[in-house]
Amino acid sequence: MATPERRMSNEEEFALVDLVNRVLDKGAVISGDVTISVAGVDLIYLGLNVILSSIESMRGRALP
Predict the structure, then answer these.
(1) Which residue(s) pair with 52 in the sheet?
(2) What is the per-residue pLDDT across 13-30, written as a single tens digit (0 to 9) for each?
(3) Whole-number Cα distances in Å, 57 to 22, 24, 53, 60
(4) pTM: predicted TM-score of the whole model, two decimal places
(5) How far apart are CA 56 and CA 54, in angstroms?
């Protein structure tokens, strides 16, 4: 059974735009680690560091 598509209200659209604007203006860092192991032996380690920001904001925070 197909579910009906939900449309965002104007308030939700503005909230999403404000959120994206704030993240690009201030920046956000996402960090994470994943370890895959079998029988207590670590086989794969993945480290993730992501910076979300606008280029203009990053240039303003860069050291001279």
Answers:
(1) 28
(2) 667 778 888 877 877 888
(3) 11, 8, 7, 5
(4) 0.45
(5) 5
